[in-house]
Amino acid sequence: MPVSLALKDLTRRYVKDGEEFTAVGGVNLAVEPGEFLTFLGPSGCGKTTTLRMVAGFETPSSGTIEVGGRDVTRVPANERNMGFVFQNYALFPHMRIFDNVAYGLRIRGETKDLEKKVRDALAMVGLEKAEHRYPNQLSGGEQQRVALARVLILRPSVLLMDEPLSNLDAKLRLHMRTEIRRIQQELEITCLYVTHDQKEALTMSDRIMVMNHGHIEQIGTPMHLYEDPATPFVADFIGQANLIRGKLAREEAGYGDFTVEGRTVRARMGRQNPPKVGEDALLVIRPENLRIAAEGDANRVPVTVVNRLFEGDRISYEVVLPGHEKEKPIEMSVPFLPGTGLIETGTGLEASFIPEAGVIIRP
Predict the structure, then answer these.
(1) Which CATH architecture describes the domain 240-361?
(2) Best exposed site among 45, 70, 271, 314 by fewest CB in 10 Å?
(3) What whole-number distance in Å separates Cα of residue 70 and Cα of residue 354?
(4) Crossing angle of helices 140-152/170-187, nearest 10°?
């Protein structure tokens, strides 16, 4: 049966050059049985350190880790019944694939029906015919599947994965995302997955925990994080986002009037971190939700084209608002229609969006 996992005020501090450094600061998290939850964030944000504390490879400075209601904070790693899939596969090069997968069971002394268990594990990852080969005779994707089979054969209560696809090429990563998610759902196993790749997180996860500087920025479903980011960091890290500075002039029925350079536009109020009327605010709009204004569009602001990039099916324009020329340009991604031309740089036009496509948050 899948188990729940709970982290309570989990903290990890180090002493570096005589000074205390907090790698993970007070993480609180509840993972449902059978849930696939991803730790997402840039390098050094604390995601791998958090995963290693859950695994038992690092000792928390404070806080607790509970699995199925049992406190395992001080329980040795080999007694936690967790499976860890490493970034570098960690296969034994001198052993056949069969022996690599069987290794954990042999160490435990669980040799009953060993051949059937190994073959079942290899079948689960689609490598039924690879048992007599050696790791150097397999592709990177196949080696990663062997590493996964070696963990799954032990029937762990929690599966932990630390950037397992980072060494694969783009096409293999796409395939392995699907395979890992399929296996996790078939087994209904609780899974914590670490990555800095936002597409991996968005396509594989039930929920995502976005981390920055050792703290949680936001936790939610992929769609929730994309549509309703709580902070500028989450908005900018998950997908591409334009962050426009202005003020909140009015709020009504979940929408706000946002003023920028003398223009007022309407957008959704952020549910997680909304500003108050009269305060400085940020308007978050995804590039694909901006378009060149047409007659009758209400939400429109004047912009000047400063760069353009033809991408085949789309055109990416970089534009700036009057008075914001020294800031990062706003990106617009518009469909390319055959027979139409590119807008020249220096051209002034108006950009628009529907109110539902923008969200207003605190800076």
Answers:
(1) Beta Barrel (2.40)
(2) 70
(3) 49
(4) 20
Q: With contact defined as beta carbons under 8 Å apart, do 311 and 281 qualify?
A: no
pLDDT band at 166 (very low <50, low <70, confident <90, very high): confident
**Residue 281 pLDDT:** 97
pLDDT recorded at residue 93: 94
Instruction: Give the span between the Cα atoms of 129 and 145, in whole angstroms.
Output: 13
The alpha-helical segments, DSSP class H, found in the chain are: 47-55, 97-108, 114-124, 140-152, 170-187, 198-204, 222-227, 232-237
5-227 topology per CATH:
Rossmann fold (3.40.50)
Calpha distance 326→101 (Å, rounded): 57
How far apart are alpha carbons 39 and 29 in whole angstroms?
11
Cα separation, 305 vs 319, in Å, equals: 4
Assigned token pair, 288? 């694909």
pLDDT at residue 18 greater than cutoff 80: yes
Percentage of residues of the chain with pLDDT beyond 70: 100
Domain ranges of the chain: 5-227, 240-361
> What's the pLDDT score for residue 111?
86
CA atoms within 13 A on the CB side of 117: 19
Judge whether 179 and 126 are in contact, CB under 8 Å: yes
* pLDDT per position as a tens digit, 287-296: 999 999 988 8
Report which residue type is found at 58: E
Instruction: Encode burial over 256-291: b for 16+ CB neighbours within 10 A, e otherwise.
Output: bbbbbeeeebbbbbbebbbbeeeeebbbbbbbbbbb
pLDDT digits (tens, 9 = 90+) for 104-113: 999 999 889 9
User: CA torsion, points 66, 67, 70, 74, in degrees to nearest 10?
Assistant: -60
CA angle 189, 191, 195 (to 5 degrees): 155
